[in-house]
Design a protein that fits this description.
This protein is mainly α and about 70 residues long. It is about 85% helix and about 0% strand.
Length: about 70
Amino acid sequence: MLGYNPKTRLDERESYLEALREAQKEYDVAVSCFKEAVDPELIDEAIYLMEAARKKYSYLLKKYKSMVS
């Protein structure tokens, strides 16, 4: 039978929460790399990684909020 399955919805929410946690970790690592970088190329890479992680987090958060609402 097809229809609403609360467990599937809960599992999906948990998946998004885990993805949000991972994106936060990625951002934290990128910030750490940025703080330690001295070479201009490494600084640029760290900035790129921070921006990518921030965008990923924003996307996942938007999806999660739309699911919960």
